[in-house]
């Protein structure tokens, strides 16, 4: 079978090949404003989306709102693990303060569409979140996708305006990297793909 010649590289491809997370503590002001958020979310909305259900939901938490989020996270941790020592609770409370912007990335799940199972809707929202990360990186911002048990806490979802049936996929910490970010080498791609032929 004839193979296509390797197309020339492009700024988009080079951006994808270089994206890397920035740890929250290395993120400073300025965070993306409304226009940059619009752009990043427009990229998220380019993710594949079975049934056109548009599950992407991004909630931005900035400034003093991060203090309130910290309280909510600490309350959630106590509710889930009542024996948590105070020092650990303080760490939980301070987590959102590590970066100027925390984005709660979620998926609004439709349960009335049996042809599009919930995991596919979450996959579409996760693919959108990845596009958002790539777009933020391409605009010079740094970001890091983190998780925690609070993502599955209905009280946390409620506080942030999500429905209990929605899925919270992660906390995206965003800001401007304090220094030129490292972009560590990745494994050899050939280990992660192969051609298949029937026996
Ligand atoms: C759904 C999801 C949840 C994640 N949660 C965490 C986390 O809680 N803690 C963590 O250190 N990394 C977490 N990561 C990984 C980081 O976002 C990041 O990918 C990792 O630090 C490696 O950096 P890189 O993106 O430059 O490869 C998560 C990634 C995904 C996709």
From TrEMBL:
Q: Spell out the InterPro entries in the cross-references.
A: NAD(P)H_nitroreductase, Nitroreductase, Nitroreductase-like, YdjA-like
Show where the Nitroreductase domain sits.
18-175
As given in the record, the signal peptide range reads none
A Pfam family this chain is assigned to:
Nitroreductase
Which region ranges are annotated with the description Disordered? 177-199
EC numbers for this chain = 1.-.-.-
**What cofactor does this protein call for?**
FMN
Q: Which CDD domains match?
A: YdjA-like
Biased composition, class Basic and acidic residues, residue ranges: 178-199
Tagged with keyword Flavoprotein: yes
The entry's keywords = Flavoprotein, FMN, NAD, NADP, Oxidoreductase
Enzyme category, top tier: oxidoreductase
Report if keyword Iron-sulfur is assigned: no
Q: Which family does it belong to?
A: Belongs to the nitroreductase family.
Please report the name of this protein according to its UniProt entry: Putative NAD(P)H nitroreductase
Source organism (scientific name): Plastoroseomonas hellenica
């Amino acid at each position: 079978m004839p193979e296509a010649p390797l197309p020339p590289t492009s700024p988009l491809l080079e951006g994808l090949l270089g994206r890397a997370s920035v740890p929250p503590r290395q993120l400073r002001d300025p965070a993306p404003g409304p226009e940059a958020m619009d752009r990043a979310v427009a990229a998220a909305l380019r993710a594949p989306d079975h049934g056109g259900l548009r599950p992407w939901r991004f909630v931005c938490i900035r400034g003093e709102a991060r203090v309130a989020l910290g309280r909510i996270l600490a309350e959630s941790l106590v509710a889930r693990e009542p024996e948590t020592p105070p020092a650990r609770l303080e760490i939980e409370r301070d987590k959102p303060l590590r970066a100027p912007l925390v984005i709660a990335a979620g998926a609004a799940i439709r349960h009335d569409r049996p042809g599009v199972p919930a995991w596919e809707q979450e996959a579409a929202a996760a693919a959108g979140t990845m596009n958002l990360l790539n777009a933020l990186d391409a605009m010079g911002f740094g970001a890091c996708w983190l998780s925690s048990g609070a993502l599955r806490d209905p009280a946390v979802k409620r506080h942030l305006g999500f429905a209990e049936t929605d899925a919270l996929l992660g906390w995206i910490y965003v800001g401007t990297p304090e220094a030129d970010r490292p972009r560590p080498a990745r494994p050899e791609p050939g280990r992660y793909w192969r051609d298949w032929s029937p026996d």
